[in-house]
């Protein structure tokens, strides 16, 4: 049985967003994209390096998949992009019928049951 881990970038007042760019996700009028970049330091670099070093598959929702799939396949040849591109990506979606990013698989229907099924399979960590 494998474990599920969640990597979250969260402010004390509840803003949760990846450490991307200011235009990362302006939906709903959100104007503070990329907030985490200013706080990235050597401790964060070490923590993320350790998290990314272990073998893992990805469990993604549609929006995160779309954001990642638009960026990582074209990010160049570096350890993080190579690892993300080679990882198996399980995508919870009821709207995307075709997933272009290599090693991507749709999961639909009862998502909780599907995640439980994935956890009971042999394999690396499921990283959200």
Chain-wise SSE layout:
Elements (H helix, E strand, L loop, with lengths): L3 E2 L36 H12 L2 E6 H10 L7 H8 L2 E4 L11 E4 L3 H9 L5 E3 L1
Parallel strand pairs: 1-5, 2-3, 2-5, 3-4
Keywords:
128 residues, alpha/beta, five-stranded parallel beta sheet, 30% helix, globular
Describe the structure.
By secondary structure, the chain is α/β, with parallel strands linked by helices. It has one domain (4-127). The chain contains 4 helices and 5 strands. It has helices at 42-53, 62-71, 79-86, 111-119, and strands at 4-5, 56-61, 89-92, 104-107, 125-127. It has a 5-stranded parallel beta sheet. The longest helix has 12 residues, at 42-53.
Distance between the termini: 17 Å
Q: Could you tell me the strand content as a percent range?
A: 5-15%
Q: Which outline best applies?
A: globular
Number of strands: 5
Main sheet record? 5 strands, parallel
Give the uncertain stretches in residue-range form: none
Class derived from helix and strand content: alpha/beta
Q: For the CA atoms, what is the radius of gyration?
A: 15 Å
As for the number of domains, it is 1
Order of helices and strands: EHEHHEEHE
Oligomer: single chain
Average pLDDT: 89
Helical fraction = 25-40%
Strand order of the largest sheet: 1-5-2-3-4
Number of helical elements = 4
């Amino acid at each position: 049985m494998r474990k599920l881990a969640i990597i979250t970038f969260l402010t004390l007042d509840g803003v949760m967003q990846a450490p991307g760019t200011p235009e990362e996700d302006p939906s709903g009028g959100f104007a503070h994209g990329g907030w985490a970049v200013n706080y990235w330091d050597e401790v964060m670099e070490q923590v993320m390096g350790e998290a990314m070093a272990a073998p893992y598959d990805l469990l993604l929702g549609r929006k995160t998949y779309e954001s990642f799939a638009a960026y990582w396949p074209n990010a160049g040849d570096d350890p993080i992009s190579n690892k993300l591109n080679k990882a198996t990506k399980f995508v919870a979606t009821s709207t995307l019928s075709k997933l272009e990013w290599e090693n991507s698989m749709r999961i639909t229907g009862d998502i909780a049951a599907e995640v439980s099924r994935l956890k009971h399979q042999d394999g690396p960590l499921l990283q959200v």
